[in-house]
Amino acid sequence: MSLPSKTLRRVQLPAGNICKQQQRNATLLQRPHIPYTFTQLIALTDGSTFTLRTTSPAPIFRATKDTRNHALWNPSLSSLRNQEQDEAGRLRAFREKFGRGWDIDAEDVEGGVQDVEGVKEDSLMDLISGAAGGGGWDAECEC
Fold it and tell me: Number of folded domains in the chain?
């Protein structure tokens, strides 16, 4: 038995199964990097201590400058003024090269500031007050 050729036809399927939008798989978000923190003992210059969580692995931190011994935090303490340490002699070399104007080592003498070697210098406050009153460098210059 043979089938007539007219009854055989190719069947076309609807194109509804084909996805017309781009598909994208979900990507995993990376977790934020959270560093490990250590417990650190902070020792201030006056001997007081406190603990702190930090990323530094050193167990003890000894501060050389802190709020107890810095002139910026304690401007009224006279023991913190004029702290100049010249172990290597670099300040002395600088003074020899550039002079000693308004130096910390200059001593207060009546009538102005006199240098350690004996050369009289104007103080910074004299220059400021002279400039405000019309004096200063321009008043001394006879150009």
Answer: 1
Domain of residue 70: give its range: 35-75
Count of Cβ atoms closer than 10 Å to residue 71 Cβ: 14
In this predicted structure, the answer to whether residue 118 has a pLDDT above a threshold of 60 is no
Q: What's the CA gap between 79 and 125, in Å, rounded?
A: 23
Q: What are phi and psi of 2, to 5 degrees?
A: -115, 145
64 within some domain: yes
Per-residue pLDDT at 11 exceeds 70:
yes
Tell me, rounded to whole angstroms, the distance of Cα 110 from its chain centroid. Answer: 41
Q: Any idea what DSSP says for residue 129?
A: H
Q: Residue 94 in contact with residue 88, Cβ under 8 Å?
A: no
Summarised one tens digit per residue, pLDDT across range 41-51 is 999 999 999 99
